[in-house]
Design a protein that fits this description.
alpha/beta; five-stranded parallel sheet; two-stranded parallel ribbon; 12 helices
Length: 285
């Protein structure tokens, strides 16, 4: 059905959400579908840069803490140890400090403003289901994003809000599937070559489609990484290690990075809306 809809005679215009999905559709059903990154337009009005006009006002409006986004990695013992290491390194090196939240503010742990009820204490100890609002996220000095998948809206939301974002580089990232579930966005399976849209001469080769570390190697994630927004969005701090993360946090000009993120996002939004307008015009003819 997907093949017939995407490659059939119907006046249908399809746009894949990201290059990862576009590549998957090409592999699985043989359909060439253009892609566009997610834009998180529902976050209009919430921005890292909206809290003050001057550099001094912007700095004063920020919570002196680094938001660590939710990740399945923190449900694994190695994630617990990473949390402890981040905390200890931050205490020793003091890149940022916030008495209300600590040096790093983990998304699944409630803030003090949420109270000290028994439920809150239990959640903070065990990593419960507490969510941070976009307003809270945009008020942090920066964010440390650990992906749980090769395509994740959290990354786009941070970028849309212009929150300076740090994340593992590809060498660090490809080790994550060894310790926690990863990659539910990609699915195995494809139509037989003769049933895919267009022609198949075998030149495409085998494409790794699973992140199951029992059957595939780290090369799988390395392959898909370069289709992801993580690899192509500029002005993101890619870190090789925890010390490298702390060094970048201590030396980065956050306002400058946020301004550059905003400029790139606006360029993406103009391109995407122009492409959609052109396609809609063709359909209406």
């Amino acid at each position: 059905l997907a093949r017939d809809l995407l490659a059939g005679p119907l006046p249908l215009f399809a746009l894949a959400e990201g290059a990862v999905l576009s590549a998957q559709l090409k592999h699985q059903v043989g359909a060439m579908v253009p892609s566009c990154p997610s834009l998180a337009l529902y976050l209009e009005g919430t921005s890292y840069l909206d809290h003050g006009a001057s550099s001094e006002a912007l700095s004063a409006s920020k919570r002196s803490t680094i938001l660590v986004t939710r990740a399945r990695y923190f449900n694994h013992p190695t994630g617990f140890f990473l949390r402890c290491l981040l905390t200890e390194f931050a205490i020793i090196n003091q890149p940022v400090a916030d008495a209300a939240r600590g040096h790093f503010w983990f998304s699944e742990i409630p803030s003090r403003e949420q109270g000290n009820s028994a439920a809150t204490v239990a959640t903070s100890a065990g990593g419960g289901d507490t969510w941070k609002s976009w307003e809270e996220m945009s008020q942090c000095t920066a964010a440390f994003f650990i992906p749980s998948d090769i395509h994740q809206r959290t990354f786009i939301e941070l970028y849309k809000m212009n929150v300076p974002t740090f994340m593992p580089d590809v060498e660090w990232l490809i080790r994550l599937p060894l310790t926690s579930p990863f990659g539910v966005f990609t699915y195995e399976g494809a139509l037989p070559p003769e049933e895919r849209a267009g022609t198949s001469d075998g030149a495409e080769g085998e494409m790794p489609v699973s992140f199951d570390v029992q059957t595939t190697s780290a090369a799988t994630l390395h392959h898909w990484y370069y289709y992801s927004d993580y690899a192509h969005f500029p002005h993101v701090g890619h870190c090789k290690s925890i010390p490298d993360l702390l060094h970048k946090v201590a030396t980065t000009d956050f306002e400058e990075v946020a301004q550059k993120m905003r400029q790139h996002y606006e360029l993406l939004a103009r391109g995407a809306t122009a492409a959609m307008a052109k396609a809609t015009g063709i359909l209406l003819l």
